[in-house]
Design brief:
This protein is an alpha+beta fold. The protein contains three helices and seven strands; from the N terminus they run βαβββαβαββ. The chain has one domain (3-108): Gcn5-related N-acetyltransferase (GNAT) (Aminopeptidase). The chain has helices at residues 10-24, 86-100, 115-120; strands at 3-7, 41-47, 50-59, 69-77, 105-111, 124-132, 135-143. Strands 1-2-3-4-5-7-6 form a seven-stranded mixed β-sheet, with helices on both faces.
């Protein structure tokens, strides 16, 4: 099993996010201006050469006074590629790239049903549970 990562392949990331978040999970507002910002890092994963998943990370644009604060999200793995540890690999690669770009802490708005995954990688919950469209989410953070 070979996992390969690329950066900034938004066409492949768009394909994965459309399938997972829109078609599978029913989200309508999946894409935003953050996707087009030059500071956003799109990470795409390929398993044995086949498109498998994606994620994105970016500096917290709403808090420019905290340059080390980054946001992670849009982690998605295609259904046929799940179970191979790609989610954890995409998260680790995104954290690595964010650290290289100056991140000292990562924040994410997790679907509540997947908080145990993030907790296993060192994230802690904070703030209230909020609805993002029809799904409960909570903020989580980790020092890098």
């Amino acid at each position: 099993m070979e996992i390969r990562f690329t950066q900034s392949n938004f066409d492949d990331a768009r394909h994965v996010r459309t399938r997972v978040f829109m078609e599978e999970q029913g989200f309508e507002n999946e894409f935003d201006d953050i996707d087009e910002d030059a500071r956003t890092i799109h990470v795409t994963a390929y398993l044995d050469g086949a498109l498998a998943g994606c994620a994105r990370t970016f500096p917290d644009f709403e808090r420019p006074e905290e340059p080390g604060r980054w946001i992670f999200g849009r982690l998605a793995v295609l259904p046929e590629q799940r179970g191979a540890g790609l989610g954890a690999a995409l998260l680790a690669e995104s954290e690595r790239l964010a650290r290289e770009a100056g991140a000292t802490e990562m924040h994410l708005h997790a679907q509540c049903r997947v908080t145990p995954f993030y907790e296993r990688t060192g994230y802690t919950q904070y703030g209230p549970i909020e609805l993002d469209e029809h799904v409960e989410h909570i903020w989580m953070k980790k020092s890098l």
